[in-house]
Amino acid sequence: MNIPRNIYSDSFLEEARVVYRIVGSKNTLETFIFPWRYVPENFLETDFIRSRANVSDFVFIDIDEVGKTMTVPSGKWIVGNDIVFPNDFDILIEAGVEIDLVNDSMLLFYSGVEFAGEEDNKIRVFSSDGTGQGISVLSAKSVSKISHVVFENFSAPSKSGWELSGGVNFYESDIEFVDVEFVGMNTEDSLNLVKSNFYMDGGIFRDCFSDCFDNDFGTGTISDSYFVNCGNDCLDFSGSEIVVNNVTLENIGDKGISAGENSVVSARDIVVSGNFTFIAFASKDFSSLFLTNVEINNAEYGFVAYEKKAEFGPSNIVVDGVVFSSVDNEYFIEKESKLKLNDIIVLGSEKNVYEKLYG
To answer: CA-to-CA distance for 168 and 154, rounded, in angstroms?
Structure first.
């Protein structure tokens, strides 16, 4: 077919589709003509992830070239352009700092960063216009330490040639969180960790649009934390080894704790409460979920084990001590998956559990 030259554009290339029907079938199907995003010729020049460090453009940041340190001093700072920090400096954010990210701006770090807030003098990083794209730490060699900080009202990073799912992102960068709040994130994940080892004590997640905490291919511990008003999953783990202690999950859109893709998750003293929850605990795709002393209130399903992806397989849940209150179905277990509930073994008998749950 002849396509007029003047309709070619980035949006056309991304959205153009072919609508078709297999001979003998009544079903009409469609597929994208170009399954990958169109890459312009000047991609390397405009690609955000290749941007050079530009800290010297911001006069409020103290730079010590000899000591190789950068410090954001206590004060209120409005940031309307992206700040890219280098990988060969130690970076300190002092107690009492307030950073307002506006005009689609974000903070990008290539080294470990210390947010040194205090219990009575916290650090606040937020976006007053809702466009701020949060913080991301990539391939840092040193461990980041974030204490007594509030992250609030971010959108997900979306730059030329580069996108991430979280308001706060760590990739191949180990991290310690103490008394950190994630509030009102309009992102797929409020906190997204990939290939990163972590420790979290006293975390609070409130009013999250979708997943609160998404961890892929890492290890870590979550203790004494609180999750409330979560649009999707509170804790979502893939390919990870995780320990969770003394956590409350309240007002959950989908799942409380989700273990997937060969994860091993051990959780103790967990309360699922609030408004109606779809699934309190889910184990899928070769994962094992070990639970001790859990309380489930107002849920459609208590424990669910199934296979979602064909390249994996059945999953297991072991529960030692559970209290149910207003739970429609205590468990829903797929064939070949297993549930051990207070020393009683439940062999799965259901088929196509994922399709039945999510249609």
So the answer is: 8
